[in-house]
Specification:
Elements: H1 4-20, H2 25-50, E1 54-59, E2 62-67, E3 74-79, E4 82-87, H3 98-110, H4 127-134, H5 139-148, E5 153-156, H6 166-169, E6 181-185, E7 190-194, H7 201-223, E8 237-239, H8 245-253, E9 261-268, H9 270-283, H10 291-305, H11 310-320, H12 324-334, E10 344-349, E11 359-364, H13 368-371, H14 373-389, H15 396-428, H16 433-441, H17 446-453, H18 460-466, E12 470-477, E13 499-505, E14 511-517, H19 520-527, H20 531-561, H21 564-572
Parallel strand pairs: 3-5, 5-6, 10-12, 12-13
Antiparallel strand pairs: 1-2, 3-4, 4-8, 6-7, 9-14, 10-11, 13-14
Helix pairs in contact: 9-20, 10-20, 11-12, 14-15, 14-20, 19-20
């Protein structure tokens, strides 16, 4: 039986061997020399970059990544809100064997109940403030936090509800943000909460899949064994992590991260998108709009057309009776405040050009006004309706009117697809404005970096060009055998970033969206104890997006597939046109 790294190495060696057998010997030798040189120059740094054997040391201007040895690493277990550290290696420095770890976990779960820890409040403090706060905290607490740093993985064994949005599910004991990965148990699934400093979306989903498959393999083996006996010699340690009244007061006064609301939806019709793309191809091979392009396009349309549901409007109206000031601001948020065409940051895979780059940012706006897209969509749809619903007789003029609108609309979409495609190509090569700004700042001292990094936030047009107001991160469709079903994206510390859309398509072709909402109303409602209303606003916005997107795709499919022959066939069969 192979573990994942050994299996991956074996398959890679097979792949290389098959291809190198057909290569001229001189070419093979040249390639091997280039590989050796690249490994000598970049491999160690790349392995250090990808390793989770490190902790993050917060500072006033950013995070310092501090590596440590495997022999010093621990696995953190959170049980009944208490923290325990299990060493990864034995006293000889060799990795702990599975049966020893199993007996230790059995002892941990059977141990007497301990006092719950209290550091979840520290996880909500801004990381830039933790460095100054640390020096004021109780020395015993600081010592426990120092020990916790050496646990790159925390496993929270306190079951959370799987019905919670991912952003809400993680709002419990999860360390203070200095480590790479926290795993939550929902009783049905496991959730991998990954630090965006250690992981990008693609690498994070890959690691989640690797760990899931490894865990399933071990579970099948361990299930065949007798129940474990709790170890008599305990090698794990417990951490008190208690905050004194003085500590609690300091934490209460410290600046916090922006409160957020979260929502999820899995009703977007991915199969309809694939049908639409096939319809486009029948019309023209040059219409290249990907599923993600359609998501970005409709995000702009949604911003221009969103109308809150009756349920949400009624809730805001009820709030106006007790908090008219807050209700008035909410009406602005769900009304005209959402009409701006958002600049969207899309993380692009840059690893093919340079593996160490991982991700290159692309900021883009769908040019609705420039292309006159909404009126064009409406006019084409009306022309199609008029032709389909006209009485029998001479309908040639009606079809000619639709045909002209259809050709113009599809040509516009072809141009839009080209625009998206070229923008993504440039970003993947690290040539976008956002990537250029990062490179310009990279070699400056940290204080200057942070000073210049904040400038775009003060100028809307510059922020839209370099940082964007929203994030749409789509990790795509997982493998047919994958167990991954949900994905939540991270956002940077840009205060102008208001919404973060995480998108994944599971093995059953269910596309799920997780929306994180950082708009100012979330803070206002959090302050008055109405997180439920903040969640409703986000859920309503996401649900309206999905419903509108599905309707938009149906309309586009009708338009793209309609012809004189296809419409006549539908009418002869007595089928409705819609």
């Amino acid at each position: 039986m192979y573990d994942y790294p050994a299996y991956r190495r074996m398959k890679f060696d097979e792949f290389i061997r098959k291809r190198s057998q057909t290569m001229p010997e001189q070419v093979t030798m040249k390639w091997r020399d280039a590989l050796v040189n690249a490994a000598a120059q970049d491999l160690v740094a790349y392995q250090r970059q990808m390793s989770i054997l490190a902790y993050l040391e917060p500072g006033a201007y950013g995070e310092a990544r501090v590596p440590f040895n495997l022999a010093d690493a621990k696995i953190g277990v959170i049980y009944n809100d208490s923290y325990y550290l299990l060493p990864v290696c034995d006293e000889a420095g060799k990795p702990l064997d599975a049966l020893t770890a199993r007996a230790q976990v059995a002892a941990l779960l059977a141990s007497p109940f301990s006092v719950p820890s209290q550091i979840s409040s520290l996880a909500r403090v801004k990381r830039s403030e933790l460095a100054g706060l640390r020096s004021k905290l109780d020395p015993m607490l600081v010592n426990d936090l120092d020990n916790l740093k050496f646990a790159p993985i925390l496993i929270n064994a306190d079951v959370r509800s799987s019905s919670l949005p991912l952003s809400e599910l993680r709002m419990t004991e999860r360390g203070i943000g200095s480590h790479a990965l926290t795993i939550f148990d929902t009783g049905e699934t496991f959730v991998f909460d990954q630090s965006h400093i250690f992981f990008d979306g693609a690498w994070g989903t890959a690691l989640s899949e690797i760990m899931t498959n490894e865990a399933l393999s071990w579970a099948r083996y361990l299930d065949m064994l007798d129940d474990p006996e709790p170890a008599s010699n305990r090698i794990y340690t417990s951490l008190a992590l208690q905050l004194s009244p003085a500590d609690l007061a300091l934490v209460q006064q410290a600046p916090k991260v922006t409160p957020e609301a979260g929502a999820e939806n899995d009703r977007l019709g991915i199969k309809a998108c694939l049908t639409l793309r096939r319809s486009f191809k029948k019309r023209s091979e040059e219409i290249e709009l990907t599923v993600n392009d359609l998501l970005v396009l409709y995000r702009a349309i949604h911003a221009a057309t969103y109308i809150p549901s009756r349920k949400l409007s009624d809730e805001i109206q009820r709030l106006s009776q007790s908090r008219p000031d807050v209700a008035a601001s909410l009406k602005q948020v769900v009304g005209e405040g959402s009409r701006t065409n958002p600049s969207i940051l899309i993380p692009m895979d840059a690893s093919l050009k340079a593996p160490r780059e991982r991700v290159s940012p692309l900021c883009i706006e769908a040019p609705l006004a420039e292309l006159n897209l909404l009126p064009l969509h409406s006019e084409t749809l009306k022309a199609l309706d008029a032709y389909e619903n006209a009485p029998d007789g001479n309908r040639a003029e009606l079809f000619d009117a639709f045909d002209a609108s259809q050709r113009k609309y599809l040509a516009t979409l072809r141009g839009l697809g080209t625009y998206f495609s070229r923008a993504k190509d440039m970003a993947s090569q690290g040539e976008s404005a956002a990537a250029g700004a990062i490179k310009l700042l990279a070699h400056l001292p940290l204080p200057i970096q942070r000073l210049l990094d904040k400038i775009p936030e003060r100028f809307d047009s510059l922020n839209n060009l370099i940082k964007g107001r929203e994030v749409i991160s789509n990790v795509g469709a997982v493998a047919p055998t994958s167990a991954l079903t949900r994905f939540m994206t991270a956002k940077d510390d840009n205060n102008q970033k208001q919404l973060a859309w995480g998108v994944i398509t599971d093995a059953k072709l269910n596309l799920r969206i997780h929306l994180r909402d950082f708009r100012p109303h979330a803070q206002a409602l959090h302050n008055i104890g109405r997180r439920d209303l903040a969640t409703l606003i986000t859920q309503d916005y996401l649900d309206a997006y999905v419903e509108g997107f599905n309707r938009f795709i149906r309309d586009l499919t009708r338009i793209a597939s309609a012809s004189r022959k296809s419409v006549t066939k539908r009418q002869l069969k007595g089928k409705p046109a819609r």
